[in-house]
Amino acid sequence: MRLASTLRLAALLASLATGAAHAQSLPPSNSLPDDLQSYAGDWELQQEDANAATCPLTFTDQQVQGGWAITLPDTCAAPFPAASALAVWSVDSSDGSITISDAAGHPTMKLLADPDGFYATDEDTTPRFYLVTPQDPNDAGGETDAD
Fold first, then answer.
1. pTM of this prediction?
2. Cα gap 35→16, rounded to integer Å
């Protein structure tokens, strides 16, 4: 009986050691690659009508299935997608587009980069959305001028 208990304890310790070694080999959950660091932060989904409601969101460095997590301070009103559909962001390295997906990995929208540095859904998509950095109180936008 004592031998069986000792063997079970040894097997348990071996499995714990194997699990710990495996966990150490996994990348940290906030391992945002250097080339994506500039995407992390506050963004705003806008509609074509500049006077229409906007949808603030934050691209985090928290790695999740399919990309990195999005947080929303509030639920965005229609016509914006439901909060559950705005859960994950990723960047397509082949064309620089940003895909926003739900937590299960189903794409909600693909935002294509335009020459002005904005991101927008395809022209044929209705309603059309734009992803921009939020405006500051002085209406200077999210960019700074290099002097």
1. 0.71
2. 35
